[in-house]
Amino acid sequence: MIPAFDELQLRLPRHIAVIMDGNGRWAKARHLPRFIGHQRGSEAVRRVVEAAADMGVEYLTLYAFSSENWRRPPAEVEDLMGLLRRYLRRDLAEMHANGVRLRVIGERSRLSGDIVSLIENAETQTAANCRLNVTLAISYGGQDEIVAAARAIAQAVAAGRLDPAAVDHQLFASRLDTAGLPDPDLVIRTSGEKRLSNFLLWQAAYAELVFVDTLWPDFDRADLEAAIREYQARDRRFGGRRE
Ligand code: FPP
After folding, report:
1. Is the full-model pTM beyond 0.70?
2. I want to staple 200 with a disulfide (CB 3.0 to 4.6 A). Which of 9, 119, 138, 204 is the partner?
3. Rounded CA separation 15/95 (Å)
């Protein structure tokens, strides 16, 4: 018997990036502490990583902690760091067994030493996996990333190691944290907010943006499929025109 062909697979986005928003509102609506919202949010991360791997998505990038999130009250920052620690410690074995390669982008010098070690360990341990590439953006800001790339290029030019004429899109992209990753095809933001909030500013130049009202802790496989179907209904022209 020929298996039923799933239409979803027909034009699957290769790289999906997600702005996970609404943990606080989810908790507030239930008169629960914000921490519970973030905890439920990390469960949604597990669900979505599993669903993306099952669907055959190649790259999934998740905005876990922005460079602006450092401005939150210290107790909330510590709660979020605790959840990230737990994820990098406890979920690593399962991700590794499922063929997930984990990478982290963002400003590591602001993170505590033990988290940096957990990140390095997770990246090394999963480096040869290729079923699904998960990238966590932690202490990440798109503007900071662009400024750092520009600074590195300027330093190379000033030192005579780089000809300014050689600076093009490709070279610039190779100096970003995301060097080696394809640009996202689809960026999803949950919770009804319609902003990029400093996420993958360079990389999302031609991404389709899908905004959904679901709050992140409620986001599941069905929501991911719905966002992919919306992406599939879009007409991507990359600035050109359809004949
Ligand atoms: C937005 O909720 C979400 C975050 C600040 C970060 C996302 C963090 C997680 C999903 C949990 C930990 C992540 C991993 C990878 C284990 P918000 O607090 O801004 O919500 P609000 O806008 O409703 O207040």
Report:
1. yes
2. 204
3. 18
Question: What count of Cα atoms within 13 Å lies in the side-chain half-sphere of residue 209?
Answer: 16
Query: Which residue minimizes the CA distance to atom 12 of ligand 1?
Result: 42
Mutate to test the pocket of ligand 1, among 38, 70, 71, 215 (most ligand atoms within 8 A of CB): 38
Tell me whether residue 113 is exposed, middle or buried, using C-beta atoms within 10 angstroms of its C-beta: 0 to 12, 13 to 18, 19 or more.
exposed
pLDDT tens for each residue of the chain, 243 residues long:
444 457 788 789 999 999 999 999 999 999 999 999 999 999 999 999 999 999 999 999 999 999 999 999 999 999 999 999 999 999 999 999 999 999 999 999 999 999 999 999 999 999 999 999 999 999 999 999 999 999 999 999 999 999 999 999 999 999 999 999 999 999 999 999 999 999 999 999 999 999 999 999 999 999 999 999 999 999 777 777 765
**Cβ < 6 Å from ligand 1: which residues?**
20-25, 38, 41-42, 45, 62, 64-65, 69, 80, 83-84, 87, 136, 191, 216
What the block records as the tokens of 169 is 């899109």
Catalogue the active-site residues: 21, 69
